[in-house]
Specification:
InterPro entries: Erg6_SMT_methyltransf (IPR050447), Methyltransf_11 (IPR013216), SAM-dependent_MTases_sf (IPR029063). Keywords: Transferase. This protein has one domain: Vaccinia Virus protein VP39 (Rossmann fold, 3-Layer(aba) Sandwich), CATH 3.40.50. 41% of the residues lie in helices and 22% in strands. The protein has nine helices and seven strands; from the N terminus they run H-E-H-E-H-E-E-H-E-H-E-H-H-H-H-E. A seven-stranded mixed sheet has the order 3-2-1-4-5-7-6, sandwiched between helices. Helix 2 links the parallel strand 1 and strand 2. The longest helix has 14 residues. The protein is globular.
């Protein structure tokens, strides 16, 4: 994928050095805290961040296949017991109230069946003052829509940062997905692979109409 992308992460998403650097900065987490990765897939971005920030990681994904693969990769990044992976959905993670110092979702949360409910769930599991950092690809007004949804969920939007370099990456990634469709189905399961391949079938013009944003949302201190 090029030198701008961390090979060890092996992402199925727009996980570049640029993105990881901004996520580290936005989370503002202290060593020893707990990071939750919603829609973790095979775990690469969350595991990389857990190592970089010296925090504990809980990855959540609906796919049992993805959860198993992520657990197998954990030892390549972090110490034994530093990361765990479990099945759950965006709207129902099964995690305790206020147990997460930070939450991430890299190119995943927009697939939630109910986006506001997913944001409410992220708020519920965050400590007061904790941050949710997510990536989205939307129509030009999409960032404003997420601002509205965040308000309904009780979250404050601190930042909506435009990623101006994502188009070429996605075109390369889509080509790889199509080329390795059978491997995707084996590693992620039919449902997750179908979602990715559906995305990969869209024409370049559609991609260019959907800017990519890194959004930072915060649970207020007094809630």
């Amino acid at each position: 994928m090029g030198e701008e992308y961390p090979h060890e992460v092996e992402p199925f998403s727009s996980c570049s050095w640029w993105l990881l650097g901004h996520v580290v900065s936005a989370l503002r987490m202290r060593p020893g805290g707990r990071l939750v990765d919603l829609g973790c897939g095979r775990g690469g971005p969350g595991l990389w961040l857990a190592r970089a920030l010296s925090v504990r990681l809980v990855g959540v994904d609906f796919s049992a296949v993805a959860v198993a693969l992520a657990a197998e990769r954990a030892d390549d990044f972090v110490s034994a017991g530093q990361a765990e992976f479990r099945q759950g959905t965006f709207e129902q993670t099964g995690l305790p109230d206020g147990g997460a110092d930070g939450v991430i979702s890299i190119d995943a949360l927009p697939f939630a069946k109910d986006r506001v409910a997913a944001l409410r769930e992220a708020r519920r599991i965050l400590v007061p003052g904790g941050r949710l950092v997510l990536t989205v690809r939307e129509q030009p007004a999409g960032a404003d829509d997420w601002q509205t949804m965040a308000a309904h969920a009780g979250l404050e939007v601190e930042q909506a940062l435009l990623n101006e370099h994502h188009h070429d990456f996605w075109l390369r990634l889509f080509a790889l997905w199509r080329e390795h469709a059978d491997e995707l189905r084996t590693e992620l399961g039919e449902r997750a692979a179908a979602n990715l391949l559906r995305e990969a079938s869209q024409p370049r013009s559609v991609l260019e109409e959907r800017p990519a944003f890194l959004m930072v949302m915060r649970r207020p201190d007094d809630t």
